[in-house]
Amino acid sequence: MSVSPITILGFGISGQLLLCQLLEFVKGNKITVIDSDFCGGDLMCKYSAIQSNTTIGQKVDRLSQEGAIDDWSEIGLWISKRGKSTDCLPVVDIATDIQRKGHERVKECTAIYDTARNLEWNADTKLWTIQFSSTRPPLQTSILCVCTGMEPRQDDYGVPSIPLSIGLDPDQLKRMVLPGQKVIVVGLSHSGTLIIKHLLSINDVDITGFYRGDTPFKYERNGYYGGIKKESADIADAILRGDYGKRFTLLSMKDTLKISQKVHSANWILQAIGFQSKSVLIHSQKPLWNTETGECIGFPQILSFGACNPATTEYLNRHYDDISVCSFLDQIEARLPLLKQQLKDASIIT
Fold it and tell me: What confidence tens digit (pLDDT) does each residue in 34-43 have?
């Protein structure tokens, strides 16, 4: 069974940024990267139609700040050429520039096009065994960096469900939702408002938006952490002004009778209720991650990065996931000393 000193699981945004950092002090022939397709992650493949909520200037400043590695600075330079400092780009443009660098650097490493199904830790050999979804033989590794990202949360309403990625793609959405149908949108934050906009472009569709709390829309301008802004805020304003008339209805989740009636008569439901970790199994169980350090509780020589175990911000007794290029960079730098110590303990670096 072959042994890789370091293995990165997942090659989306965080995996690519992490590889750039790793190659500053580890030779590429010691690194294996595993990804199903190396396309650049979900921002490239599933959510390319949406806009970033942070400006070009914010990203460039973070990527190019004093002490930044050359690869990150070069990505910042490419992004800076896409528009004005105050512009917000489609996420696919940002993902493309990161992918450009990721594809360049991964050529120095071993790339495996496959999906990790399960991880097994052996305390005697101090090695991880990676089992694949295909018939590929298992791979052993000393240090694991997990960058597997997130996936949309889904609740069971007993109604045919349209994936979030299709709800955010107006062309695909029009192929699924037919005129005269009734559609429910659960969750009215950034993604939810964009889905409503796309649904309203389809003729004769009855749309109901379900929301939790006392108000349907939480705006950044009103002081809500992570509240809607820019295009999402404009859509919400138009809804509250009544611009869409009887085609769109707001309904509080507290009104259980009306909720039940709407669900019973709906043709489709789209859920924009947040994300959950898309993590590989360890000994066939879902792992528990320390959100501060990235360590896996109960297992050594493994760290998580990016959206599969994001940093969080506490605001008004709630915890919010920090999902952005800037927060991923902060996380990599914060966890780098621990990663280097693990590499030293495994005699991979000195």
Answer: 999 999 888 8
d(CA 172, CA 170): 6
| Measured torsion, CA atoms of residues 43, 48, 54, 55, in degrees rounded to the nearest 10 | 120
From 47, 45, 39, 50, select the one nearest 10 (Cα to Cα). Answer: 39
Q: How far apart are CA 121 and CA 129, in angstroms?
A: 6
Could you tell me the two tokens for 117?
Answer: 């199904």
For residues 271 and 154, what is the distance between their CA atoms, to the nearest angstrom? 7
CB neighbours of residue 284 within 10 Å: 10
For residues 166, 172, 177, 179, the Cα torsion angle rounded to the nearest 10 degrees is 150
> Where is average pLDDT lowest: 60-64, 112-116, 155-159, 189-193?
189-193
Q: What is the pLDDT of residues 175-218, one digit of tens each?
A: 999 999 999 999 998 889 999 999 999 999 999 999 998 888 88
Half-sphere exposure of 302 (CA within 13 A, CB side): 29
Where are the domain boundaries for CATH 3.40.50.720 in the chain? 164-271
Q: Determine the pLDDT at residue 315.
A: 63
pTM (two decimals): 0.90
Q: Does domain 3-152+275-344 have CATH number 3.30.830.10?
A: no
Separation between Cα atoms, residue 18 and residue 145, nearest integer Å:
9
pLDDT of residue 318: 67
Does domain 164-271 fall under CATH 3.90.226.10? My reply is: no
DSSP 255-289: -HHHHHHHHHH-SEEEE-S-EEE---EETTB---B
Pinpoint the residues of the chain covered by CATH 3.50.50.60: 3-152+275-344
- Rounded Cα gap, residues 290 and 296, in angstroms: 6
What is the residue-averaged pLDDT of the chain?
92
